[in-house]
Amino acid sequence: MTDTDTTTQYRHGILPEFTAEEASRQEFVKSLKLHLAHKVAPGNKIAFERNVVPRFEKQHNRAPENRHEVRKEMSQEPTFRMWSTLLRTSQEMMWKACQTPVERQLDTLIETAKHATGAGGTLELDPELSIPKYHTAVDIHCQPGAYHTEVTADDVAAGAVYDRAVYVYAMGRMGPFNDDIGASLAAWLANERPDFKPKRILDLGCAVGHSTIPYVDLYPEAEVFGIDVGAPMLRYAHARAESLGKKVHFSQQNAEDLKFDDNYFDLIVSHILVHETSNTAVRKIMKECNRLLAPGGLVIHGETPPYRDMEPFDAFILDWDTRNNNEPFWGGSHEIDPIVLAEESGFPASNVFEGMAPSAFAEAEARRTHAFRGGDFGGGGVWYCYGMQKTDTKPEAAE
Amino acid sequence: MTEPAKLPKKAKGARPYFFDDPAVDKAVAIVMGLAGEVSVMHDRLDTIEHLLAENGTLSQADIEGYEVSTAIAVERDAWRDRFLDNVLRIVHQELEDPDGGRANDPAYEQAIADVLD
Predict the structure, then answer these.
(1) Which of B1, B12, B80 has the most A C-beta neighbours within 10 Å, making it the best mutation to test the interface with A?
(2) How close does chain A come to B64, measured CA to CA in Å?
(3) Residue in A33, A365, A330 with CA at minimum distance from that of residue A167
(4) Gyration radius from chain B CA atoms
(5) Is B5 domain-assigned?
(6) Number of structural domains in chain B
(7) Domain range spanning residue B27?
(8) Do the Cβ atoms of A234 and A125 come closer than 8 Å?
(9) B9 or A165: which leads in pLDDT
(10) Environment class of residue A148 by beta-carbon count within 10 Å: exposed (0-12), middle (13-18) or buried (19+)?
(11) Interface mutation vs chain B, best among A1, A3, A7, most B CBs within 10 Å
(12) A347-362: pLDDT as tens digits
C-alpha cells in the first residue's frame, strides 16, 4: 500500500493482526456504513419533505423552525427509524469486530507497547488522575469501556480497538494513518499563517495520537506534546508514534487542569475533543489554554460545522449522534459561539477566528457524500475549525 | 495459566430503539449480523477461487495468509455494495418510490375500483 491507499490502514508496529475472517468482518462494517451513507441516508430528506413538512405545516401553519421540532416528527417516520436502527447496529458491529482480534492478542500488544522505542518520545501516566464524569456517564460513541477502562495491567486494548475502529468508522476516508483531521487543520494553519512557526505544540485529548503526528511533520523543529485522560490510549499512542519514528511526548492529564507552566506553548490544538466534554469543561479548557499559551500563541479546535447556519433538517441529521451514539455533548458543542467562549475564557473577541479546512486526503474524494450527518464521519470533505489568539500584550496592559 | 482479559462488550448507556416494538430493531440487528457472516464467507470463497485459479491447489495456510491486493479489495467493496443492494432491497424500494412505501395505501384499492368502472 501507499500513503494514498483508500482501502488499507497503514500497518505500523502496534496495529493488531487480523485473521482473514476478522478482516472480512471489519470490511463488511465499513461497506455497510458506506452503503448507508450513500444509499439509505438520502431517504430521510425525502421523508422530511414529502411527509413531515406538509404534516407540520397543516398543524402549525409554518415549517419546522429548529432541529428539535424536526426530530419530534422525524422519529415517527419509518424511513428514519430503519436508517437509525441500521446505523446503530453498524456501530455495535464495528466495536465487536474490532474488539475480538484485540482481545485475542492483548498480551502480545502489551509486550510490544512496553518495548516501544525509536523516535525518542516519552510517556508519563498518572494512575491518580480522576476520569471526568462526561467520560464515565456513558461510553462515548458506544465503545464498550470507552477511552479509560483498563481490563488488565499495562492495558492497551482501548487504544488498539479505537485505532482500528476509527479506520472502519471513517470508512478509510481519513487516510491510511487516520490523520485527516490533524493533517487538514495543520495544512489550513500553514496556509493561513505561513510565518507562524510554533516551538512547542500541545494536542488536547490526543487519543492514539493519530491527529498529533501531522504537526510533527509540519513543524519538524517543534516539540510536540499530547495529553489524554485514557491510559490505554496513551500507552498505545506512544508505541504507535515510536513505531512511526515520530517524536511525541504523551502524558495522562485532564485538559481542564494541566501541569504545564504558564506561556509554555505557541500552539494548542484539539481534534473532535470539544464535543466529548461539557459546557463547563470547555470553559475551563479554554481558560487553561489562555494560561498555557505564550503571547501571540494560537488555540485551534477541529470539529464538524456548528448548527447556527444550517437548515433545521441538516442540523437535525448531524445531531443524530447526540441521542443515538452515546455522544451527549454533541448537540451542545455544536451550539458553541466562539465569540462568547472567548469572552468567558479571557481571549479578546477580536482574536477569534473560524475556518473550513479542506480535507488533506484528496484520494478519498470519490467515497465522500459532501454531507454532514450521523454515521457519515469524514464524508464532508472539509473540517470546521475555530480558535483564538492570545494577545501579544499582558492582559493588565490591555485593560 | 491465567484467563485472558475480557473486554466489556456492551457500551455503558441506554440503547435507543427506534421502532415501537424493540423486537423489530433486534430482528434488524440479527439480520445484519447474518448478512455480515455471509459477507465473510464470500470473502473466503473469493480467496479460494483466486488461489485455485493461480495455483490449481491450495492449503489452509494459503487461505489464511492470502494478501488481498488493492484491486481485489476494490472488487470486494463493490461486491458488498451489490450484496447490500439485495439484502436491503425493501429499504431501497421505498426510497425509489416513496408513495409505494406507504403501508396499506388506499390508492391501490382505488386502482381496483377504477378498473371495475
Answers:
(1) B12
(2) 6
(3) A33
(4) 23
(5) no
(6) 1
(7) 22-102
(8) yes
(9) A165
(10) buried
(11) A7
(12) 999 999 999 999 999 8
> Structurally, how many domains does chain A consist of?
1
Q: Residue B108 — very low, low, confident or very high, per pLDDT cuts 50/70/90?
A: confident
Note the pLDDT of residue A376.
92
Give the CATH number for residue A119: 3.40.50.150
- Which amino acid is present at B54? E
C-alpha cell, A177: 494513518
Is A143–B47 a contact, with Cβ atoms under 8 angstroms apart? no
Q: Which residues of chain A have pLDDT under 70?
A: 1-4, 394-399
B111 at interface of A, judged by CB pairs closer than 8 A: no
Q: For residue B70, is it within any domain?
A: yes
In B, minimum Cα distance to A145 occurs at B8
Q: Is B98 on the interface with A (CB under 8 A)?
A: yes
- Is there a domain that residue B53 lies in? yes
* Helix residue ranges, H only, chain A: 20-35, 42-47, 53-60, 67-74, 78-104, 106-114, 133-136, 157-169, 180-192, 213-218, 231-243, 279-292, 312-318, 320-324, 330-333, 338-345, 395-398
AA identity, residue A42 = P
Chain A residue whose CA is closest to B21: A81
Which residues form the domain of A192? 1-399
Count CB neighbours of B21 within 10 A. 9
**Reduced DSSP (H G I as helix, E B as strand, rest coil) percent helix, strand, coil of chain A, to 5:** 50, 15, 40
Residue with cell 424536526: A70
The shortest CB-CB distance from A21 to any of B40, B74, B88 is to B40
